[in-house]
Design goal:
3 domains; single chain; 0% strand; mainly alpha
Length: 284
């Protein structure tokens, strides 16, 4: 039983009067069985998320339902749990507009997420990005959601950072951006993000080109340039290149004082030994 489940078990075994205390009031102490601990504060300090069995959570729901401490208990659970609550509990909390902040800041299935969309911006952003970036979601679904929030600046700002799953979705979004009160700012942002993504793609392709060069080039000037890179991945490719001269490999056995130098020394030495053995077995 992990710390979250132990904490829940404490509430399940406590007297009912412990559930009718306003623990949000200043200086109100938590019950003795919890060692005066506030789960949300204590466990969040560790930046660790905990799982809890559904049957345990449902028991907690039955025990705390309608009691004064109920919102505080579920807010504490939501702050540290690693997975969504059972739908029965989530729907119950949404029906009462209870713990909406906690529910909106964690992953949810689509049925729960849709119920949260009108209640908290984070759920709207999550759902909108899902419709915009998932190739299995239609343009019509995306358009229907955007039509409900045509002037939502945070929504449009977030979508400008996202990668659309189709040109049609991007075209529709840009048309809606042009109708937005802050269209100029949003259009510039969307353009800038496309340029960043294009730069990232170019860098990825350039990296692949350099690695291919290191694997196959026979040009001495290119080999010397690659040798000076001090990039472990590039140098490993250069070591495996059958065109790399032995004097270059020999210099690699002297590498020191940079990340991966030890491994590179060993690899270079192995290649030199293999070449030497090959020459002995196959003399000219």
């Amino acid at each position: 039983m992990n710390e979250l489940e132990q904490w829940i078990h404490g509430w399940l075994t406590c007297p009912i009067e412990n559930l009718d205390v306003d623990y949000d009031k200043e200086d109100t102490q938590f019950p003795e069985f919890l060692n005066h601990k506030d789960l949300a504060c204590d466990l969040m300090d560790d930046f660790v998320r905990y799982s809890a069995a559904d049957d345990l959570l449902l028991q907690l729901h039955e025990k705390t339902r309608g009691h004064l401490a109920e919102p505080r208990i579920w807010n504490s659970v939501l702050a540290v749990i690693s997975h969504p609550l059972p739908d029965l509990i989530s729907n119950y909390l949404i029906d009462r507009e209870m713990c909406i902040f906690g529910l909106g800041h964690m992953e949810q299935n689509e049925a729960i997420l849709k119920r949260l969309v009108p209640l908290i911006a984070e759920a709207l952003l999550t759902f909108a990005k899902r419709l915009y970036t998932d190739p299995n979601r239609s343009l019509d679904e995306f358009a229907e959601l955007i039509a409900q929030y045509p002037n939502h600046e945070w929504l449009f700002y977030s979508l400008a950072h996202a990668v659309p799953s189709s040109p049609e979705k991007q075209k529709f979004f840009l048309n809606k951006v042009r109708e937005h009160p802050r269209s100029e700012y949003l259009l510039n942002l969307e353009r800038d993000m496309r340029e960043v993504r294009a730069q990232s793609e170019w860098e990825k392709l350039e990296r692949q080109r350099i690695l291919e060069m290191a694997r196959h080039t026979a040009e001495e000037s290119e080999i010397r340039e690659l040798l000076n890179s001090r990039d472990q991945e590039i140098l490993l490719c250069l070591i495996c290149n059958p065109n790399t001269p032995e004097e270059v490999l020999l210099s690699m056995t002297q590498f020191r004082n940079f990340t991966g130098a030890r491994e590179l020394r060993g690899r270079a030495k192995n290649v030199l030994d293999n070449r030497k053995n090959h020459k002995l077995k196959h003399p000219m």
